[in-house]
């Protein structure tokens, strides 16, 4: 949820105590071997040194394990570096695209696994007006600003602390984005919590407060391939999205403002179909995005609790993923701009369509589109958003 609606439930205390640092991660729990049993018992997250940035900042990698799922998260960008889940025969495999080394993330990553902020997706002409003041942002995608600008939340070092709640094991990540950073008004205090349950769920809770009116749209940019990272095309995955409308885009991928019906178009995933089925049909919107790179208007709208909106099945491995969210939108991106120049953790090269993203969000360019749900956050209010990815297998 958003800014505006959930704001009435504002609870700022958690954020107030979050003295976040943008530099090295602080000391954490004693390291023991990461692991868990299928009984649901888990061990505390394990921290290890992952690399050092040019400015000397230390980057850690945290490993969490619970109920057969293993997750690796970097303090740099809050990046999901790997996510290992069993296939139908119980064999574990990494289903998230990424790199082995910090340098690769810093040099040239298309947001693999990263936390995206302050504003996920595009803002037209890299500017918006709020309360009569125009704010200019860095343009990093043609004329537009994409994913928070040239140095968004994906390129910041987050403060990471272990967190657990009953049988669930997790991490709390904090980042303070100063007033004016990347052109946005207001100091934004952001807290993101990754939580692994023993039932094969990865839950991400986002929370933020500001000291001046601003815009916020947080998401995670994991590229999934349920057959295994580096195993080739995702076109055979079956995808179902509970959305009767989507937001068509102009030639720079900014929504035109229309909420178009999916019925009778390649965007109709309501009953489930292989991702590749209609990709080559020549629909003008698919040509524009070089594949799917569109925001789906989720039928359920904004909800207080996460509601299921997506099911994905990969027939060979039998792996399944369900996505539930409180957000009203979902950017389905079919990895169109992967171009065979990046080598992933498996040592294999990523080509177009080798991974897909399901970015739960408010709609792109909302700060300039009065007809879209608002992304404005005001002082005294709390931004909250939750997305849950649930993994399983089918026979
Ligand atoms: C966008 C794509 C972009 C990708 C980043 C997605 O969220 O919609 O257009 O290329 O992120 O690589």
UniProtKB/TrEMBL annotation:
Signal peptide: 1-27
Pathway noted in the entry: Carbohydrate metabolism; hexose metabolism
Top EC class of this enzyme: isomerase
Compositionally biased intervals (Basic and acidic residues): 45-54
Record's keyword annotation contains Signal: yes
UniProt-listed Gene3D superfamilies: 2.70.98.10
Protein family according to the UniProt entry: Belongs to the aldose epimerase family.
Superkingdom of origin organism: Bacteria
Region feature (Disordered): 26-54
Keywords from the UniProt entry: Carbohydrate metabolism, Isomerase, Signal
Matches recorded under PROSITE patterns: ALDOSE_1_EPIMERASE (PS00545), TAT (PS51318)
Catalytic activity: alpha-D-glucose = beta-D-glucose
Name used for this protein in its record: Aldose 1-epimerase
EC numbers: 5.1.3.3
